[in-house]
């Protein structure tokens, strides 16, 4: 009996030892995987690093590329497009003006009543119209006749007493957010369609001419006074309310910047110099690139797999279209190389752009003790239900790394603009402010991105110069800004002044 008992005890002890060894091996394996995960995060953070010196180098490179782009066509990755906008709103504009904002599957028509210095914008009304899908790939006539008829319907609801006097035409600012080769303030040929549009017979045509033809066909007596993009509209909207606005930056799904340049500082400008001595330049800064940009393996892969490899490198680092997907790519590496989510990578993590920047922002701003928002996003978006608090903290850290890099690089880009126009240092005896109008969903809704951008700009400028620079949210520039530019470039303005 005793022998049997001893034998059983030996077997039990062996089983306990084996189980303990399994636990130890499991812990070692887990701690090994965790160490690998932490190493991946640390390496990613280092490669995304934006120390002050590097940001100054990015700002200097932006300044150099701006000079090159102004010197000659094709002289730089920055297009530095001449906008032909040489009169920004002064606040004195009066009258009723229209705007048409076409930039996607919807367009907006706006009516803005301006009352000059005393009254500013007295009223504004708008309507949003969906474009039927077949018109996005049909004919130029089909699209522009649809737009013209919606515009005519909107004009028909004009308040009594606003008929243009003495046979004057109504005037329209046209925000057209597709690549255009501008030929004057009120004309430009379409280079190519984007955003799901593909109307072959419109490419190479003057988009204002196409719209005008359609308006004339239905008897709508209206003239396009200004053809602009949304960044220039934002600049105009900002300037109407504040004469110290010198530049505008859009940080949304995409990104761009425009600023006011002295016409004499544009070597490629061969026309007569405008009376104002100024010209708004549309930088197309999303296409900026430099060896100083902190590009990681995830950015390179995203670029290679994109619709425009090798293009819009700056945009792919800082804009809302891409930030969430950079986080996804980092998470996928953790899943594949460190079994971060278990033995197999969750299938949804392989879906490009499944993590949108609004999802990333929600996770980044999660202040709950157990990071509940992060857990819910993973369950709802990625179908991953078993995330520990430790894992959720890593996810927030990845969001922080990607958002901070984007915000700090955007600040470096703004520094480059300020350097180009000599506004990056405080001038003795001068109290003037330089205001930068910012718009776009990323800037407006991603609070941590915005605060990081603002604090980085101060860090780069130093206290004294930072006191002279103001960042101001300028809402809806693409709409009201176009109406304001129609006013400041009115065909009747010269006659009356």
Can you give a write-up of this model?
There is one protein chain. The chain has 497 residues and is an alpha/beta fold. It folds into 2 domains: 50-82 and 242-474, 3-Layer(aba) Sandwich (Hexokinase, domain 1); 84-228, Nucleotidyltransferase, domain 5 (2-Layer Sandwich). 46% of the residues lie in helices and 17% in strands. A 6-stranded mixed β-sheet has the order 1-11-10-9-12-13. Strands 4-3-2-5-8 form a 5-stranded mixed β-sheet. Strand 9 and strand 10 form a beta hairpin. It comes from Lupinus angustifolius. Pfam families: Hexokinase_1, Hexokinase_2. Belongs to the hexokinase family. It catalyses: a D-hexose + ATP = a D-hexose 6-phosphate + ADP + H(+); D-fructose + ATP = D-fructose 6-phosphate + ADP + H(+).
Quick structural summary:
With about 500 residues, the protein is of the alpha/beta class. The protein contains 17 helices and 13 strands.
Give short descriptive properties of this protein:
497 residues, alpha/beta, Hexokinase, domain 1, Nucleotidyltransferase, domain 5, 2 domains, six-stranded mixed β-sheet, five-stranded mixed β-sheet, 17% strand, globular
The parts where pLDDT drops under 50 for at least 5 residues are none
Amino-to-carboxy terminus distance: 119 Å
- Structural class, by secondary structure, is alpha/beta
Q: Given the structure, what is the number of helices?
A: 17
The H-and-E topology, N to C, reads as: HHEEEHEHEEEHEHEEEHHHHHHEHHHEHH
**Biggest sheet statistics:** 6 strands, mixed
The proportion of residues forming helix, as a percent range, comes to 40-55%
pLDDT averaged over residues: 90
GO biological process, one term: glycolytic process
EC number: 2.7.1.-
Organism: Lupinus angustifolius
Family: Belongs to the hexokinase family.
